[in-house]
Specification:
InterPro entries: Rossmann-like_a/b/a_fold, Universal_stress_UspA, UspA. By secondary structure, the protein is α/β, with parallel strands linked by helices. Helix content is 39%, strand content 23%. It folds into two domains: 4-136, Rossmann fold, CATH 3.40.50; 149-288, Rossmann fold (3-Layer(aba) Sandwich). It has helices spanning 13-29, 52-73, 88-93, 120-127, 162-175, 195-204, 207-225, 240-247, 271-279, and strands at residues 4-8, 33-38, 79-84, 99-106, 132-136, 149-153, 179-185, 231-237, 251-258, 261-263, 266-268, 284-288. The strands form two sheets. It has a ten-stranded mixed sheet with strand order 3-2-1-4-5-12-9-6-7-8, sandwiched between helices.
Length: 290
């Protein structure tokens, strides 16, 4: 089954920025783009006249206006648009079977309810089995064409970060961009490292060379698979969120992974992804780990 990029739209400037970004990414990757607007008739249990047909027409009008805007800006993209008769979370997650990625808008800076889908943003990002890209608008207008590196965080073992690294390299290759891979590390508290891990650090010449070696080894298979992509390796002492955010100012995209976690109030996205989504100035791709 052929893949497509799916962008959620709701008429807001943030969702139009997301659709604009998704159209450019679709052209880079040679994929079709589908715009999706979620709407479901939910009559109120109060004695008021409720116009279902009017609401349905309004949903269709909103979608067609977004479709027209994207088509004018990106006439070469293969574009479809659809009103999905469901709640936003269920509607977008229901497109995953065909989706290469889901793209949503974000108002940034502030509570997670800043996503264009309101509080549904966290649910989509936390539950999606596909990459989800959150895109901000700039002064209420669709973002300009991106420049800079594709920045990716490498955490843990090569297996832990394989999905995020793969997405970063694929994106950079499609765009003709470079990858900047960042690994953050912290001084271990007393007894935190096992004797075996400390022995490996000693053999590597210390903690910094050990972390540099770990990053280099995690990148090796992706360098081999994408030899045309320039790569910069960066190891820095600090928390992963802080180190990634400090490097994100010159990035065209920040890629972070997330492990499947579920809290008492629903899916959790992890502290690194949470910080990136709230504070990074560039679009953020959150990649579910295998």
């Amino acid at each position: 089954m052929s893949r497509e990029i799916v962008a959620g739209v709701d008429g807001s400037p943030e969702s139009l920025a997301a659709a604009d970004w998704a159209a450019r990414e679709a052209l880079h990757r040679g994929l079709p783009l589908r715009l999706a607007h979620a709407w479901r008739w939910e009559p109120l249990d109060i004695p008021l006249v409720q116009d279902r047909a009017g609401q349905e027409r309004a949903a269709e009008k909103l979608l067609r206006e977004a479709e027209s805007t994207v088509a004018r800006s990106h006439p070469d993209v293969t574009l479809t648009a659809e009103v999905l008769l469901d709640t936003p979370v269920a509607a977008l997650l229901g497109t995953e079977e065909r989706a290469e990625m889901l793209v949503i808008g974000s108002r940034g800076h502030g509570a997670l309810v800043g996503f264009l889908l309101g509080s549904y943003g966290q649910q989509i990002i936390g539950a999606a089995g596909r990459p989800v890209v959150a895109v901000r608008s700039r002064d209420g207008q669709p973002s300009e064409p991106p420049v800079g590196d594709v920045l990716v965080g490498q955490l843990g073992s090569p297996e832990d970060s394989a999905a995020a690294l793969g997405f970063a390299f694929e994106t950079a290759a499609a765009r003709g961009a470079s990858v900047r891979a960042v690994r953050a590390w912290s001084l271990p508290p007393l007894y935190a490292y096992s004797p075996a891990s400390m022995r490996l650090a000693d053999e590597a010449g210390g903690l910094v060379p050990y972390e540099e070696k770990a990053l280099h080894e995690a990148l090796a298979p992706w360098r081999e698979r994408f030899p045309e992509v320039p790569v910069t390796e960066h190891v820095e002492l600090g928390s992963a969120g802080q180190v990634l955010l400090s490097a994100s100012g010159a990035a065209q995209l920040l890629v972070v992974g997330r492990r499947a976690k579920r809290g008492a109030v629903g899916p959790r996205i992890g502290s690194v992804a949470h910080a990136a989504l709230h504070l990074a100035p560039c679009p953020v791709a959150v990649i579910p780990q295998g």
